[in-house]
Amino acid sequence: MSNRARNKSLGKESPHRDRWLISYADLVTLLLALFIVLYAASDHERARRIAESFSGPNAGGTGVLPENDAPKDDRDKFKSRLMENPVLVKKTKMTQTDRGFIVSLSEAGFFAPGEAVIDPEADEVIRALAENIADSEIGIRVEGHTDSTPISNSRYPSNWELSTARASTVLIRLTELGVAPQRLSAAGYGGFQPVAENSTPEGRSQNRRVDVVFLNR
Question: What pTM was computed for the model?
Fold first, then answer.
């Protein structure tokens, strides 16, 4: 009896029996790549999408349809538009964070000390901001902040009330200028989320602000 017959009679398969499948799979992959390259010569854009549809599942992407990338593209264009606006560049501070893109409005240019009424000259900035975001669907949270110096007057017993009032004032003005109210929310954090040291006048000035946060989610 031959070795092959003996192995078969013992219920054993040859370890080399299916190795041809590896070469066959490699050949199919090479042919697929060849057809994609050839097709690219006549329709580059469609070939690119086909190639991405194969690489997407392996890369752990969100899908193969171009529309799935649209939100990120929209956010990039939206952010670029804000950063190119001369009024916003001159009179606000813009930063990208993990939770979203932030446009900071300094107290010095927007509010009188201890007050929540927007300075008339600062309305130009709010208007420029509204004009650039009105057509977007990105969620927005308006956040009021103060420094750590206690405040107590007849209108605002503490920094909590003052920071919340300032955030609400900016939010209301944005809605008046055409920003959809369902996209907006407001929050006041008092002096408990500083961005600089409260031990210096410069640091306290940076902490007194209203942040307009364009949320990632």
Answer: 0.67
